[in-house]
Amino acid sequence: MLPEGESVLVHICCAPDASYGIPAMSKRFRVSGFFFNPNIWPGQEHDRRLQATRQLQDALPFVLTVVGGGEEEWEQATRGMEDEPERGRRCEACIRMRLARTAREAKSINIPAFSTVLTVSPKKDAAMVNRAGREEGEKAGVFFLEADMKKNDGFLKSVETAKRFGIYRQNYCGCRYSLRP
Ligand code: SF4
């Protein structure tokens, strides 16, 4: 159990999910955002989602750390799983490496807990995300704040908020495999 008011480093996968997730978590914790998404393909799309996240940062506002690179690590983590369906083993490996990086960042800057807004999306299995976060948090020595942010109409609220701020909403998860018809 994390005491209210504690600092949490929250992994941001995209601005629409963060538009609900960051304010929701900020009601109970001191939240800062962490953008690390080497899964997003192509590079222009990565930059577009980052730009949308910066637009949200200005509108809310919140502290945001951006870390680039990691593409080769992502390729290694997901190799041999190219044909897996969404929510399958490839997605777990992809989410796990991004959460592991978030956990290490939190540890290095003395933030005691980390989390993610990934579970705002109805396409993300909250049980899998939370299990990966717990395990990566244990390895790094940082508490993982579990959530299922699609509950209480979280996804619907993210759609409304992103629309209100005029924020770009992507139509595929992120990697080149999720672009397949
Ligand atoms: S579909 Fe999304 S979560 Fe799954 S591997 Fe691709 S980018 Fe990662």
Description:
This protein has 181 residues and is of the alpha/beta class. α1 crosses α6 (154-164), α3 packs across α4 and α4 packs parallel to α5 (126-140). β4 (113-116), α5 (126-140) and β5 (143-144) form a beta-alpha-beta unit. The relative contact order is 0.21. It has six helices and five strands; from the N terminus they run βαβαβααβαβα. It has a single domain (7-179), classed as HUPs (Rossmann fold), CATH 3.40.50. The N and C termini lie far apart (42 Å). Bound molecules: iron/sulfur cluster (SF4).
Question: What keywords describe this structure?
Answer:
12% strand, Rossmann fold, five-stranded parallel β-sheet, 181 residues, alpha/beta, globular
Question: What is the topological layout?
Answer:
Blueprint lengths: L6 E6 L2 H12 L3 E6 L7 H17 L3 E4 L4 H8 L10 H20 L4 E4 L9 H15 L2 E2 L9 H11 L17
Parallel strand pairs: 1-2, 1-4, 2-3, 4-5
Helix pairs in contact: 1-2, 1-6, 3-4, 4-5
This protein binds iron/sulfur cluster.
Iron/sulfur cluster binds next to helix 4.
